[in-house]
Each structure stands twice: as C-alpha cells, then as structure tokens.
Design brief:
The complex is a heterodimer of chains A (255) and B (183). Helices cover 30% and strands 5% of the residues of chain A. Chain A contains six helices and three strands; from the N terminus they run ααααααβββ. Chain B has 183 residues and is mainly α. The longest helix of chain B is centred in the middle third of the chain and has 25 residues. Classes of the chains: A mainly alpha (255), B mainly alpha (183). Chains A and B meet through helix 1, helix 2 and helix 3 of A and helix 2, helix 3, helix 6, helix 7 and helix 9 of B.
Amino acid sequence: MSGPDAMHGEMPGFFPGRPGGGDHDEPLLDMMLDRRPLPPGAPPEMHVLARTLVAAAGPADARELAGEAVAMAAFRRLASPDGVSPAALRPARRWLPRRPARGRLPLAAVLVTAAAGLGSIAAAYVGVLPGPIQEMAHVTVGAPPSRNSLPRTHAPTGPPRSSPRPAGPSGHRQASSAPAPSQAGHQGPHHGVAGPSPGRAIPTCTPEPVPTRNPVKPGPAPYPTPGQSSWTPRPSPTGGCPVIVPQTPDPHPGH
Amino acid sequence: MIGAAFGDTLAKAQAGDEAAFACIFRDVQPALLRYLRMIAPDPEDVAGDTWVQVVAGLKGFRGEEQAFRAWLFTIARHRAADAGRSRTRRPAVPLETSEAAELLTSPDTADLALEAVSSRAAVSLIATLPREQAEIIMLRVVAGLDNADVARIVRKSPGAVRVAAHRGLRRLAGLAERTGVTQ
C-alpha cells in the first residue's frame, strides 16, 4: 500500500499530519474498537476519531425506535406464553385450503367414474350406444341389444346370397366361408356366432339371459329394423348355454 | 448494553414478558439500524424482518448478551443479503437516496462540519468508507462485538477483520479531520 493510489488514511500507522508514524497507532486503534477510553497522551487525531466512534454508538433517537410497535406485534403473535395464540396461526391458515385439495382428488375421481358409469348404463338402456358397446351392455347389464342384432321383422325368403355381408358396424365379422344365406342375417347378436344352417342351434358361451332383466319377446324386437331377422334364445339341447335359432334368412345382405 | 441483568431480561422475554422484550429491543435496535444502513438498501424493512426471526427463535436461544447480539446481527446480515438479492431481481424499483449516497455524491462533505456531533452524522461519515470496512467498524464499535464474533459474521479470519478495521479507522480519521465532524 505504498503506491501513488494508496489512500492516505490506509497507510499503516500513518495518520494525517504525522507522516512516518509507523505501527504504533494499532494499540490505540484496538482500544477504540473495543470502546475503551484513550490515554491522555494519545494524538489529537485519535481523540477526534474516538469521539466520532462514540457518537456513532450514541443513544437512540425516536426515529430509530419507530419499529418497536411492529416488533412487539410480532412478539405477541409468535412468543405468547402458550405458543398457540390465534394470531400466530394466521400464516398457517393461509395454507389450509391447499391441504384438503389432496384428499379431494380421489373423491372427485370416484364421483366422475360413478357418474360416467351411471350415464353409460342409462344410455345402454335407452339404446343409443354404439353397436359393440351396446352389445356389451346387453350382455353385462341386460340392456336392450344392439339394433344390428335385433330380430328382423320382415323375414322374407329369398335366393341365397352369393357372398356374405361384410362386417357391420358392430364389428362382428362373419366368417367368409359361411355358405348358407341364412347366416348372413344373424351376424353379431352373440359375439359373431353365426348359425351354420337354418334350424341348427349353435351353443354359445353367453349366459342365458334372465327373463326379468332382458326380456326377449318372441314377437317383434324392441327396435326392429328392416333387413334384420328375429331370433329367439332357446334352451340348448345339451343344457346350459342358450342357443340361437335363426328363423328367417336375411333377404338384404347389404343392410 | 444491558449488562448483568441481561440473563434475567432474556428469561422473562422468553417467557412472554413484553416489557422484557421491549427492553432488549430498545437496547439493540439503534445499533441494528445503524449497522443495516451500511449494508441494506432498506434498513427499516430488514430490521423488521430480523426481529420477526429473532422473536421466532427467541425461546430456543441460550447464551449471554454477547452471544445474543452476535446471533441477532448474523440474522440481520442474512436478511440484508436476501433483501439485496430481491432488489437485484427487481431492478425496476428505483433506489432510494440514502444519506450515504448523498454524502458520496456531495461535492464537499465538509457540510457535515456545520452539524453538531451526532450519531447520525457519525454514522453517515462511516458510511462513506468502503462497505467492508464500514461494516466491520459498525459491528465492532456500534454493535459491541469482539473481533472473533465479527470474523464469524462476515466470514473472514480475525486477522483480516482487524486489518480491515484498522484501515477503515485510519481512513475515517482523515475524513473526520477534513470534515470537522467532531470539532
């Protein structure tokens, strides 16, 4: 620190007006830092500096104590004897709305799922679901079958088809090798099981519908559409699974 | 400094005695504010944050008056650093003109000579020092901490703290003589 840019006061032991003072001032500086009184023989500059430091540590004025009210309020809130001051809980209460939100999520999911399930069941009983889903609802909850699988009200006999009808909207694809024209009109009511020939019953794995839940009338189907043949579940000769008895061939394989 | 009665006063404050806490506050707050004027842009706000944290940890504090002051000023330094970072992240907020800034921009600091010797004038004069020197001098002289405590607070070696304090005092002596603050 001896260069030309060194501050005059930063040079060790070098007080203004006393060039070359050396390090003899350090004990005096330490005394000032420790707020001890200087000896009477100290340089005047030291006394000036000491008075400045004493003034810096002087008594407080009113402005400096203006924050006492805030500190006391914090003390009352946080340092009450029981530690459970209602005011102290205010910051925590701000977080309360967030905590139950974590528990509401499963409840909301359950409610949404229940609403969707009930809505689906209602739609299934109304019969507005897509074919495959309606069939599934028909099998599981006893809803009316899909319109594609309803018995046809008009079952005129006609010439055999040259080719089987492609898979319908229900997604049940009839076997392309099905030769009998009567099979064409029976696609899809029970998982694509087609009757090989008129009058021949095909056992399925579908449980026998309960009459009370899935009333199947022998007459016209609830949603008869042209081109669909009617069918009636009959008891299987071997027992157990119901059988599908095709009654009339499909005169309009394209529909 | 409260002195020998500090232990009882602290115990009462820890038990919830408002008068005891007010005694501690009035004893420390002036030094705290003067110290924060050296290092914080908003000394009053930082002092408030400091006291909130002090109150929150008051029951768990164990120690003498010197240790309590060292703990409090350590908190204050941390809060000042937080305030400085927060202000840096929001540069659109205009900086307030502090007394130290006025001194630094004043063409002639000898105007201080016209004032009576007061704490405010002395603190303003110390604020003209480099920040590190001013902070150390305030912790040593105004806060009343020893060299080891100040070294822990400013995270420097005791030797470095002593050297910085001496340099600051020598520079301050030159400023005081030029401005005639104490004459």
